Batch of 3 targets.
Target 1
Amino acid sequence: MQGYEDSTFRPVERITREQAMVIIARAMAITGLAADLSLADVEQALASFADAADVSDWARSGVAAGIQAGVVSGRDDGRIAPGDSITRSEVAMIVRRLLQKSGLI
């Protein structure tokens, strides 16, 4: 994991969906689930979401990797909602999918 650009981790702040998706993408790399995505693959994975343009540049490949692997998904309204806080239930489902798709459970 990496902290913010000012070298802090800010442990008491809420985590956004895109931050969580990047963390999960890094975990996917450890489990062997992740593949390197081209820029075109990233854009294709994000294209079906109404708010794809709202995903931060630093998070785009991580968000796309999770979506493409079926580990993360958008919300029911067709948005990724990258800046929204992630809920406990969302995190639980994402971790479960990561473990299942990685063959760890």
Target 2
Amino acid sequence: MPPCIGSSKSDLFEMGKAHIARWCELNAVEMPRVNPRRGSPDFGVCAYYRDGEIEIWVQSCAAIGRVGRQWSYPGYVVDRTPYGVLAHELGHHVDRQHGPAGGVLSHLWRPLDAAPLTSYCPNDNEWFAELFRLFVTDPDLFERVRPRIVDLFWQEWPTKAERRPWSDVLADSARHLAAAENKIRQANVRPRPG
């Protein structure tokens, strides 16, 4: 069952863990170990990746948000639910964050499309992890909002774990459908000839 309105944080965690495991299997990527934690998060974050392991404080992640400034939704551009957080941390894993020099692909690819996907892109590594999250959770929407670099992702990881059209992924939330349509329009606006 895909994530939808009414899914608890625990449900989103279990669905997200299964989703990233499936993605790893399909793309021959070693699955990082996922360690759900209790209590107060380390470093003021709800999750982090280090040395092949994702540490996640599920209850500190966002719930699905549909009102006000709460925009998190699985498969949308903004997703700070456990489902999206796991995919984001998987992004650090595939960016090869376990080496002393930091990410490999993030530093090479950001100059090709430097615009941040969300406000959580303070550096190349987070920029990449946010893009990767959307690539894993809603590849159809990713293709539409990041047309300049989508081919790099497909060349590296050619198999989708999520095969539904972006509108089906977001079908449970009219708010996120409308916002995604706007993001797609913005991505496809071409500058006027000078």
Target 3
Amino acid sequence: MKRRSILLLMCLAAEAAIVPSLTLNELIDQSEIIVHGRVARSWSDWDNAHKYIWTHHLIEVIDPIRGIRTGSIIASEPGGELDGVGMKFSGAVNYAAGEEIIVFLYRTPIGYLRASGAGQGKYTVTPGRRVRANLKGLVLGRQDRALPARDGMTIVEFKARLREVMRSTR
């Protein structure tokens, strides 16, 4: 029985990324761009070194909360399928065409914008106009009491809280 439990934990760990839990302030501080938008489309491509596949997501901006004023941006996550090759990375965030989101983005060393906090920076807006954290596959390294409080807020409350925190930290 003990052997099966260890194997199960090893399999779960292989599918999950252990990351430090970020407070809202830390998430904001680590993010160059924050937008409320809708995913228009996605595509995969090799990086410039032709070493890794990245999946890019065109996001039509509904509300530019921080750092951008244009009508769309591209968020990128490592992994995807291209030319018969598939790559998967722990902590990479999934996006779906038509999905409404609030996303916190940082710039990677190769210039792509990626969800902050290994996925903690992506919230899905539900049909009931509430935000849902996208933490599937993440094991948070410490408890953040604020995270459960943010998960399920109305989109209006969530964006008001973001703007309040940004104003108070200037």
